[in-house]
Amino acid sequence: MLKVEAIQIADSIDIKLFKTSFAANVHRADSDELFYSIAAEKYLYVFKYGILCFLGYSKEEVSAFIQSISPFCKNLFEERLSDEFDIETQTGRIKLGYNKIEIAEPDIEILRLIMLNVSQSVALDHFSLQTNKLLTETNSHTQELERKGRLELRGVNLKKYIGRTLNLKNRIAENLYIFDSPEETWEDEELNLLDLDLKKTFDLQARFRTIQDGLQIVKENLELFKDMLQYRNTVVFETIVIILILVEVINLFVEKLF
């Protein structure tokens, strides 16, 4: 029985710099990911969006590797999301179950595909958590608007809120490629069917749509908050102009009298 473990350890990993310092057999490498064949039935997957995926590693080896790759990480997390998936080999068939898959042979491309989908699932957990935090904050502001008839969020706090939302949207957009099928599945029917089955097992598409819907709700509320702020600023500006005009009129009136 083989065990896959994917862990979100940071916001991002500088895989280009890491590659130059890590001596191991690279099976696949590009600007977004590194896949290493460490030993027989022992593999390592490194993703630029901050996820590590291990197959055939002990808990001690996982901890030691995370420690060694930490200098290449941006915003290392103290609390880490993770997921595990079991692989049973030599079964003579491919069969998916709950947190487990049976495969005929431990083919490297099949194992890589499994590790990729487990990693995608953890990435979605991370993005979903961030989206839910934004939704919770948005709901608190809309409830305040309902209770008080006004929005206390303004100035720097509003800008920070907008920044958090845009930053999350940008990070998801940058990593959209992780939800595409690998090129290898385009020419191999067995790999393509396995990829589709894994995506269904981890419910990747539905979970991604949920994140998109949540961000859309946040975006709509942001536009409302911005419009309200602009209206408030316009009213303040117009009031100041009216006061200045009144002051000028009074000055002229006083000059005429005296």
Report the radius of gyration as a whole number of Å: 27 Å
Strand content: 15-25%
Separation of termini? 101 Å
The major β-sheet equals:
8 strands, mixed
**Number of discrete helical segments:** 7
Explain the overall architecture.
By secondary structure, the protein is of the alpha+beta class. Helix content is 58%, strand content 20%. An 8-stranded mixed beta sheet has the order 3-4-5-6-1-8-10-9, with helices on one face. Strands 2-7 form a two-stranded antiparallel ribbon. Helix 3 (108-148) packs parallel to helix 7. The relative contact order is 0.11.
Summary tags:
alpha+beta; single chain; 58% helix; 20% strand; TATA-Binding Protein; 2 domains; 258 residues; two-stranded antiparallel sheet; 7 helices; 8-stranded mixed beta sheet
SSE map:
Blueprint: E1 2-8, E2 10-13, H1 15-21, E3 25-29, E4 33-39, E5 42-47, E6 51-55, H2 59-69, E7 73-76, E8 82-88, E9 95-97, E10 100-102, H3 108-148, H4 155-174, H5 184-187, H6 189-201, H7 204-257
Parallel strand pairs: 8-10
Antiparallel strand pairs: 1-6, 1-8, 2-7, 3-4, 4-5, 5-6, 9-10
Task: Give a summary of the structure in a few sentences.
By secondary structure, this protein is an alpha+beta fold. The protein has helices at residues 15-21, 59-69, 108-148, 155-174, 184-187, 189-201, 204-257, and strands at 2-8, 10-13, 25-29, 33-39, 42-47, 51-55, 73-76, 82-88, 95-97, 100-102. The protein folds into two domains: 2-106, TATA-Binding Protein (2-Layer Sandwich), CATH 3.30.310; 120-232, no CATH class.
